[in-house]
Amino acid sequence: MIDRYKRFMNLEEPPPAKKAKGFFTDTSLCIGCKACEVACKQWNQLPADGFALTGNSYDNTGHLGATTWRHVQFIEQAKANGSRQEQRWLMMSDVCKHCANAACLEACPTGALVRTEYDTVYVQQDICNGCGFCVPACPFGVIDRAPKHGQFEAGTAHKCTLCYDRLKDDMTPACAKSCPTASIQFGDVEELQQRARHRLGELKARGETKAELYGMPEGKEASEVGPLHAFFLLLDKPQTYNLPEVPRLPRKTMAQRYAWSAAVGVGFALVGAIVLGRR
Amino acid sequence: MIRDPPSSRENFPPPLAGEGQGGGPGYYNYPVVRRPVWTWEVPTYFWLGGMAAGAYVTASLAHNFGSADDRRIAAGGYYVAAAALVPCAPLLIADLGRPDRFHHMLRIFKPLSPMNLGAWTLTGFTPIAFARAASHAASTGLLRGPLGALARLVPTRLAELTGCALGLTLAGYSGVLLAATNIPLWAKSKLLGGLFMASALASGSAAVTLQAARRGVPDATLHRLARLESAASIGEMAILTGYLVQSGKTARPLTTGRFAAPFWLGAVGAGTVLPLLLHRLAGRHRGHTLQTLSTVAAVCTIAGSLALRWSIFEAGKASSEDQAASFELSSR
Predict the structure, then answer these.
(1) Which of A228, B140, B163, B168 has an alpha carbon 20 to 30 Å from A209's alpha carbon atom?
(2) What number is the average pLDDT over the span B285-309?
């Protein structure tokens, strides 16, 4: 019966689950070359973003978006009267976090957003109808809808695919492949997490006291969205990199909000029955 | 080849001068979350869908609990509900990035997503509201012939029960949908769902009053409707107060600046305060004066309901660029 239904609906068996894949982005190694941005654009055939200058250090990309899936940040920490030792230049290549509990995936009403066999979050371009609900749902501001009348996959939602097509052929995602300093490391999430813990210990021993990991299972940032399959080693507080302290998963507070809504509705029905019921 | 600029660029606020990275704790003054891509179709749909649901529920209450006179006003409610639902689905489809794929909303059932729940609810409620309106038209002789005979077959009690359940869901999910995001103005308070529900029921009952006043129903019925409307308005005011208190500083894009006038004058003034005063005044009058006062109050409530949806919706876009509010929302 189920088999006949599946054949009738043309339903495929999902591919067997593989080990979770992800990125470990070690910002202490980033030199801000933007090779990841370029490699991502080239491989995924994403159009250019124009030639606007933001005036904010070397960052003329600004933000992740529908056609920008890697974004290198440049944080100039320099006090006007500070000594040279106090000055720092932090760089960080931002990307979709591929959350274990992804807000975009939960918001999606069509099932276009799916979890792949590599435990990554992926938008099926032939299913997405561009409802736009995933856009404000993402706590990191990653996913975006391409302009309705644009030339690039108009009107549907886009974000990093963790190079799903390359993974299928056992290849490393374009950004990690192009990174010249191994700031972007690709691999099995569990192994990457081990590597990250080791690297943090190393940096702490060298006196980088402010270094911390962001997106590990034990971190408070994983309390709602779960461990991030693209996680980071940061050299300052998450907010310095525009990362929320504890990214929210909207589902966690939804029942409470429905309850208030239902209470008002039931209250009105009762008042109505009483007011109109008086003969 | 010239490409479209990314939609995000024009929305970037100018960076603040500060200690190298923008003065605040974040990365320059860039937003943490993305600006919602929805346009005017969405608040308009929330307003019409909510009004349809409110009118249907009010009509069903009047039909089942009211006197013989009250039952006459039910007709207006069913017609308003059906009429207000006509533009709803087209508005929602127009807002999609790919309107040709609107039916993908119904390829799965996923109530976890308020958007999916809403699509199914609208799909269920619309034919029920139409059937109930048709069956009423048939019973009064307005709808004749084979269509009238078909409409007579509609089980009215069942249509009222399921219609009220679906209608209340339709009126109640829209605020929860906005709240189920990471936009500070929408997500911070627990009460946005309740607020939109109250506004929907107030505007729905106002739409019934509008019809009743035009048809010249007895004064006692208008007085009873006024009491119901006032109860909804008082409820809306209380929840709105709670919403503003819970939102705190996060509500600034709504309470100050561009959206202050539509919010305070439209949603609060015309939407709740003015109708309450008018209904209070109308309580002492009868006949033509009562009908006029009820009509004006109802029009104010309905306009205020649109102002509420629109101002909270648009101010939410401004709120998405509020880096400090995003950090506050996600802090522990």
Answers:
(1) A228
(2) 94
